[in-house]
Write a structure and sequence with these properties.
Length: 171
């Protein structure tokens, strides 16, 4: 059985890997913004932060909403798991580091969820289905717990409900 410190270090490695992937995407967005900025007319001056934000939002609108929702889901579930481990399994410096990592992940979750250019009511259905699946994966990775039959049956209903909310178009 792994010690709490080993579990904490394992979870921090998972967070580090996810952050690397997110940083690669952020770097591509930054490069796109810089490319647009460099093509501005010389007389127009530098773009302000408001203009840069609008450009980044425009770039993100080209990203499929499902990708944004999956990123948000992974960030939320990972953030929740990290905070849970900080509360119940660690003390001192590791606890503080885990709290900070969890807070950063949860901030990313809120940002990516709200970037999806969909009607919020429809986003929730798709998000809840994705949330259940990712939650079970992270639960297994972080806590080595397999879902029980009631969780699988209830999760099937959650996924079906999410699909109905998202894809059923009333006449």
């Amino acid at each position: 059985m792994q010690s709490n410190a080993a579990k904490g270090l394992f979870l921090l490695r998972i967070v580090k890997i996810r952050y690397r992937a997110i940083l690669k995407v952020a770097n591509r967005w930054y490069q796109a913004v810089e490319s647009i900025r460099s093509t501005c007319h010389a007389g127009a001056g530098l773009l302000g932060w408001g203009d840069a934000s609008a450009i980044v939002l425009k770039i993100l609108q080209g990203v499929h909403p499902l990708v944004l929702l999956l990123i948000a889901t992974m960030l939320e579930v990972s953030g929740d798991a990290v905070v849970r481990m900080a509360i119940y399994n660690h003390v001192g410096t590791i606890r503080i580091a885990l709290f900070l990592a969890g807070a950063a992940l949860l901030f990313g979750y809120g940002s990516f969820l709200n970037l999806a250019p969909l009607d919020f009511g429809r986003v929730v259905g798709l998000y809840i289905g994705c949330l259940f699946v990712v939650w079970q994966l992270i639960n297994f990775i972080a806590f080595r717990t397999l879902p029980t039959m009631p969780i699988l049956v209830g999760g099937g209903l959650v996924i079906a409900g999410g699909a109905i909310i998202t894809f059923w178009k009333p006449a």
